[in-house]
Amino acid sequence: MKKTAADIEDETLNPLYSGLLQQDSGMEDLVFSFMERLPSMYDEIALTHQQKNWQTLTKLIHDMKSVGGGYGFPQLTEVSHRIEQALMLDVSGVTCLIQELEVLCVRILRGANSINPGQQQA
Questions:
Q1: Contacts of residue 16, Cβ cutoff 8 Å, sequence gap at least 6
Q2: Distances (CA, A) of 31 to 49, 73, 107, 116, 119
Q3: What is the pLDDT along the chain (122 residues), one digit of tens a residue?
Q4: CA 10 to chain centroid
Q5: Exposed e or buried b for every residue in 7-34, given b needs 16+ CB within 10 A?
């Protein structure tokens, strides 16, 4: 089912929290370090997509797919996997998926901003 602009806008309002952090609060430094790097990771992906550098984009997306779940954000892994598939099959669908990735990044950052290190989300 394709998401509408309203669906995407609604989703950006909901913070997304790390499952890893919820399971093990001792991983705070690791998870917060990842969340600090996330904006630059996304910016590099968006720029590479805009430049239509499919080979580099494939590598960047593969990296995002690998780390997303490891930091407790399986949603990043899932959408990155879908982008990776689109890059192999038909790049025309990549733009919508990159927008979906952006929404996830915004939600993750909202989650990071709504809790402080040392305060675990219930």
A1: 73, 75, 104, 107, 108, 110, 111
A2: 26, 10, 15, 12, 13
A3: 455 555 555 655 789 999 998 888 888 999 999 999 999 999 999 999 999 999 999 999 999 999 999 999 999 999 999 999 999 998 888 999 999 999 999 999 998 877 654 444 43
A4: 17
A5: eeeeebeebbbbebbeeeeebbebbbeb
Q: How far is the C-alpha of 25 from the C-alpha of 61, rounded, in Å?
A: 27
Element of type H or E holding 112: helix 94-114
Report the SS3 class of residue 120. coil
CA-to-CA distance for 113 and 38, rounded, in angstroms? 13
Q: Give the span between the Cα atoms of 68 and 57, in whole angstroms.
A: 16
What pTM, to 2 d.p., does this model score?
0.82
The residues spanned by each domain of the chain are 37-113
Token match 């219930």: residue? 122
Q: Quick one: tokens of 56?
A: 């580099």
